[in-house]
Specification:
- The chain has 187 residues and is an alpha/beta fold.
- The protein has one domain.
- The chain contains seven helices and five strands, in the order H-H-H-E-H-E-E-H-H-E-E-H.
- It has a five-stranded mixed β-sheet with strand order 3-2-1-4-5.
- A hairpin with a 5-residue loop joins strand 2 and strand 3.
- The longest helix is centred in the first third of the chain and has 22 residues.
- It is globular, with a radius of gyration of 19 Å.
- The model has no long low-confidence stretch (mean pLDDT 89).
Length: 187
C-alpha cells in the first residue's frame, strides 16, 4: 500500500506520508465539488431543459442524457488483478458516465474494474432504478446508449444492421449523432 506514492514522493521531493495526505485531501475536495457540479436531473424543470437541448440540436425528443463507459488506465493493483485487466490489454477502471447535449457530466460511476462490461455496470446502478421509476410514473424520458447496453423503454440503443432507407436506419443515424455527445465528453 502506498508503493506508487514513494515514486511520486521522490519525484516531487516530499516524503510518502505527505504525498498520501495530499492525495487524501485532493480526493476529499473532488468528492465535495462533484456533488455540486455532477447532478443527474431530478426535477421536471431540469429534465425539460436537457430534453430541449437534445431536441434543438438533434431533433431527438425525450432524451435526458447520453451514456457510455470508458477505460481509465490504472497502476496494476495488488489484489483482484483480473477484475481490473480489460479486453484492451491493460489495467483500468471502466468508468460509466452520462452527459447532456452540452457535454455537461450529470452522472459518474467509477466503481468497477476494467474487466466489467458496460451492461454489467448499468445493471448494478441506482441510475437504472431511477430511470425505471421515472417511466413507471409516466415520464417520457430516456437515455441514449450504444449497443453494449440492453434496449429498454428508458434506454434507447441503435438498431444494428437496419434496412437501408428504413425508419430504423433513420432512427439509428439520429441516435448515433445525438449519443456522440458522451464520446466528445470523454474526449
Amino acid at each position: 500500500m502506498g508503493s506508487y506514492q514513494k515514486g511520486v514522493a521522490n519525484e516531487v521531493h516530499m516524503n510518502q506520508k505527505s504525498v498520501s495526505r495530499c492525495i487524501r485531501e485532493v480526493t476529499k475536495a473532488l468528492n465535495e465539488i462533484s456533488n455540486k457540479w455532477i447532478q443527474f436531473p431530478q426535477t421536471s424543470t431540469q429534465r425539460t431543459k436537457i430534453k430541449q437541448g437534445f431536441y434543438t440540436k438533434f431533433n431527438f425528443p425525450g432524451v435526458i442524457g447520453a451514456i457510455d463507459c470508458t477505460h481509465v488506465a490504472i497502476v496494476r493493483p495488488a489484489a483482484d488483478v483480473l477484475c481490473f485487466y480489460n479486453r484492451k490489454g491493460f489495467h483500468s477502471l471502466n468508468v460509466q458516465m452520462v452527459c447532456d447535449s452540452d457535454l455537461r457530466i450529470t452522472n459518474v460511476n467509477a466503481k468497477f474494474g476494467g474487466a466489467s462490461h458496460d451492461s454489467h455496470i448499468w445493471a448494478s446502478r441506482r441510475l437504472q432504478s431511477h430511470m425505471e421509476a421515472l417511466q413507471l410514473s409516466g415520464k417520457s424520458v430516456w437515455l441514449l446508449g450504444d449497443s453494449g447496453y440492453p434496449q429498454r423503454i428508458y434506454l434507447m440503443t441503435p438498431i444494428l444492421n437496419a434496412e437501408p432507407g428504413s425508419r430504423g436506419e433513420n432512427y439509428t443515424r439520429v441516435h448515433v449523432k445525438a449519443r456522440n455527445c458522451i464520446e466528445r465528453a470523454f474526449g
